[in-house]
Amino acid sequence: MGPKLYLFDIDGTLIHAGKTPSRVFAESIEMVTGIPVVFPKGIFLGRTDTFIIREMLRLSDLPPADGYYERIRELFIQRMKDEFPRSTDGFIIPGVLDYLENISRNPQIKIGLVTGNFHTTAYIKLDRYGLASYFPTGGFGEDAEERNELVIQAVKKASSHFQTNFTPENITVFGDTRRDIESARYHGFNSVAISRVRDKHELAAAQPDILIDNFFELKDL
Ligand SMILES: [Mg+2]
Questions:
Q1: For the residues of 24-58, what is the DSSP string, one character each?
Q2: Distance 11 CA to ligand 1 centre (A)
Q3: How far is ligand 1, taken at its centre, from the CA of residue 46, in Å?
Q4: How far, in Å, from the CA of 17 to the mean position of ligand 1?
Q5: What residues have CB less than 8 Å from 96, skipping those under 6 apart?
Q6: Please, how many CA atoms are within 13 Å of residue 99, restricted to the half-sphere of its CB?
């Protein structure tokens, strides 16, 4: 059997963050570039924050090497620090707290993140809902631009943090988008799809090993 590694996406998987992050993202890009932002439909789904900034610069015909990326990133993080703790339109996915509490008591299960959020904003979001302490390690938006690579970075960092080599069949990715599920399968990992804030049929089409609406359904995993 061996020790298991459970890797969790954040947005749509552990919490629904509400409208603050995308609004702050748009305002940060506009303030730095002076160009109004209209996000293409679905750009946030399973994407890294690094990808989103680079893609918006590309769509605005702005050179990526001009310092825009770093300035947008810093402004976004600063404003999330100021604004997200006060946001009231988000919620925790039902059953998450009980589930994390449960698995964190199992010495055979190690827990980490695999999220497109920048490291700082990931913990700003988790802190807001009292979840930060469950996640000592993870792959973040700074670690990779694409999800397939992000998952590998998350596993590498977790292996080093826990001083453990996890075999693919002992790794499970929890996510809420097709990209999360497809990146898990690409590497031979297990997947759990959470459809609470997504379309259940669309997620089913990605063929996750387990498809749930909330974490109360996962009592025995
Ligand atoms: Mg997500």
A1: HHHHHHHHHH-----PPTTTTTT--HHHHHHHHHH
A2: 4
A3: 5
A4: 10
A5: 14, 15, 131, 215
A6: 19
In this prediction, residue 1 carries a pLDDT of 76
Task: Give 28 Cα–ligand 1 centroid separation in angstroms.
Answer: 21
Chain CA centroid to CA 101, Å: 19
Contacts 24+ apart (CB under 8 A), 155-161: 155/5, 155/7, 155/187, 157/112, 158/5, 158/7, 158/110, 158/112, 159/5, 161/112, 161/136, 161/137
Ligand 1 centroid to residue 15 C-alpha, Å:
9
For residue 114, what are the β-bridge partners? 139
Q: pTM of this prediction?
A: 0.94
Q: How many Å apart are CA 165 and CA 163, to the nearest integer? A: 7
pLDDT means over runs of 10, the chain (221 residues): 94 96 93 89 85 88 82 95 96 97 96 96 97 98 92 98 97 96 97 95 96 91 66
Distance 160 CA to ligand 1 centre (A): 24
pLDDT at 221: 66
For residues 148 and 20, what is the distance between their CA atoms, to the nearest angstrom?
27
Measured in residues, the chain has a length of: 221
Task: Say how far apart CA 156 and CA 153 lie, in whole Å.
Answer: 5
pLDDT of residue 41: 87
